[in-house]
């Protein structure tokens, strides 16, 4: 049965991506191998090559008989995406990649290397159906949902780049994943949940990333937030609020016409109660739109005493947009007002401005 977000925000019907090992749990992988007349341990071999060795060329599967490599690759490890373009900044430690999927759809991922961690920002949909007017992806509309494997492959591709020394700083591993790229993750609930499982399953069946290092963002699909709260996961929930009052949020985040601020926050507090994880409240500061001191006070009153943290995001403007980042003094005052209410707050590092950093900008420029 479709998840709540999928029932309400169904993607256009298109051809399905090819089946891939990352779409399947270990038992399903063994079943596919058995259908090919091979022993079950071949599934574990392929999982190790994909998730641990990060090998994407079957000719490098030296522990698999040569005659089996191509049939197994076609059945379980087809090519899912092709890099169209890489853009880099921060001395090469931030890399944005535009990917072309099997059907020509375009998505983006971003690798960000810091001294103590490597974060991958991944897309969960090609485009987005939430129609937020200040977001480049929202302006493009929704093309389709990504499969579990298409989401996972973005992270594996980042892991390969690190392992091959393509990112300055020497070999490394992806330690954090944020579902903050193109799309509304909870509108593609089943595939996103599957991706979380693959990313956090212990090696060699998955990438072995800690659940606590995964963040799932949403504009506030209330039924799906509550469903995620009951999954028994330890991932962080990030709610893209952007306004504390319904009048403005109806304009900035159109789904607010269905679930109001109070309902979204009630679902967030339910998530915090069930998981004991602090909820991140994402708030893009937009000049003269949502950055007034009184809105900071209203937000502070809504969040005071809750298991929540505010992540203020200086808006990365898109070309030709009327929306732009707040003045530095207004940003500082917003922070001060929140802190006066006892609400923890940080201002997000604005990496990627010089490489079309806002989600959807690079895809839009290549269509």
UniProtKB/TrEMBL annotation:
Q: Does the keyword Transmembrane helix apply?
A: no
| Single GO term (MF) | rRNA binding
Q: What is its EC number?
A: 2.1.1.192
Q: Which residues form the Radical SAM core domain?
A: 114-354
GO biological process terms held by the UniProt record: rRNA base methylation; tRNA methylation
Name of the top EC class for this enzyme: transferase
* Top-level taxon in the UniProt lineage: Bacteria
Q: Which reaction does it catalyse?
A: adenosine(37) in tRNA + 2 reduced [2Fe-2S]-[ferredoxin] + 2 S-adenosyl-L-methionine = 2-methyladenosine(37) in tRNA + 5'-deoxyadenosine + L-methionine + 2 oxidized [2Fe-2S]-[ferredoxin] + S-adenosyl-L-homocysteine; adenosine(2503) in 23S rRNA + 2 reduced [2Fe-2S]-[ferredoxin] + 2 S-adenosyl-L-methionine = 2-methyladenosine(2503) in 23S rRNA + 5'-deoxyadenosine + L-methionine + 2 oxidized [2Fe-2S]-[ferredoxin] + S-adenosyl-L-homocysteine
Note accompanying the cofactor annotation:
Binds 1 [4Fe-4S] cluster. The cluster is coordinated with 3 cysteines and an exchangeable S-adenosyl-L-methionine.
- Family annotation (InterPro entries): Aldolase_TIM, Elp3/MiaA/NifB-like_rSAM, Methyltransferase_A, RlmN_N, RNA_MTrfase_RlmN, rRNA_lsu_MTrfase_RlmN/Cfr, rSAM, rSAM_sf
Residues reported in the UniProt entry to bind [4Fe-4S] cluster: 128, 132, 135
Q: Which cofactor does it need?
A: [4Fe-4S] cluster
Q: Which Pfam families match?
A: Radical_SAM (PF04055), RlmN_N (PF21016)
Q: Where is the active site?
A: 108, 359
Mention any additional remark.
Answer: Reaction proceeds by a ping-pong mechanism involving intermediate methylation of a conserved cysteine residue.
State the protein's name: Probable dual-specificity RNA methyltransferase RlmN
Organism of derivation: Carbonactinospora thermoautotrophica
Q: What is the lineage of its organism?
A: Bacteria, Bacillati, Actinomycetota, Actinomycetes, Kitasatosporales
């Amino acid at each position: 049965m479709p998840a709540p977000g999928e029932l309400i925000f169904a993607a256009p019907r298109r051809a399905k991506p090819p089946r891939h090992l990352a779409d399947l749990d270990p038992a399903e992988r063994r079943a596919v191998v058995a259908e090919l007349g091979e022993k079950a341990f071949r599934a574990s071999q392929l999982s190790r090559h994909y998730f641990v060795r990060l090998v994407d060329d079957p000719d490098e599967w030296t522990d698999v008989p040569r005659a089996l490599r191509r049939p197994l690759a076609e059945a379980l490890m087809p090519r899912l995406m092709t890099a169209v373009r890489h853009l880099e900044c921060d001395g090469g430690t931030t890399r944005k990649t535009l990917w072309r999927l099997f059907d020509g759809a375009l998505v983006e991922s971003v690798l960000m290397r810091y001294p103590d961690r490597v974060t991958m920002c991944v897309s969960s949909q090609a485009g987005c159906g939430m129609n937020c007017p200040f977001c480049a992806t929202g302006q493009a509309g929704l093309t389709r949902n990504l499969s579990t494997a298409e989401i996972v492959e973005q992270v594996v591709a980042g892991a390969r780049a690190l392992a091959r020394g393509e990112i300055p700083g020497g070999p490394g591993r992806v330690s954090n994943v944020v579902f903050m790229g193109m799309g509304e993750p909870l509108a593609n609930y089943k595939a996103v949940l599957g991706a979380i499982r693959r990313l956090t399953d212990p090696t060699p069946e998955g990438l072995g990333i800690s659940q606590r290092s995964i963040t799932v963002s949403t504009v506030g699909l209330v039924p799906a937030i509550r469903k995620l709260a009951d999954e028994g996961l330890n991932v962080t929930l990030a709610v893209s609020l952007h306004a504390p009052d319904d009048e403005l949020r109806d304009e900035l985040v159109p789904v607010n016409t269905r679930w109001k601020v109070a309902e979204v926050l009630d679902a967030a507090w339910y998530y915090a109660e069930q998981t004991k994880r602090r909820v991140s409240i994402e708030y893009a500061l937009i000049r003269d739109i949502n950055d007034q001191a009184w809105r900071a006070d209203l937000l502070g009153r809504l969040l005071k005493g809750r298991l929540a943290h505010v992540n203020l995001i200086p808006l990365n403007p898109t070309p030709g947009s009327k929306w732009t980042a707040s003045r530095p003094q207004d940003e500082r005052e917003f922070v001060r007002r929140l802190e006066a209410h006892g609400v923890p707050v940080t201002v997000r590092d604005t990496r990627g401005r010089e490489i079309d950093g806002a989600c959807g900008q690079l895809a839009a420029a290549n269509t």
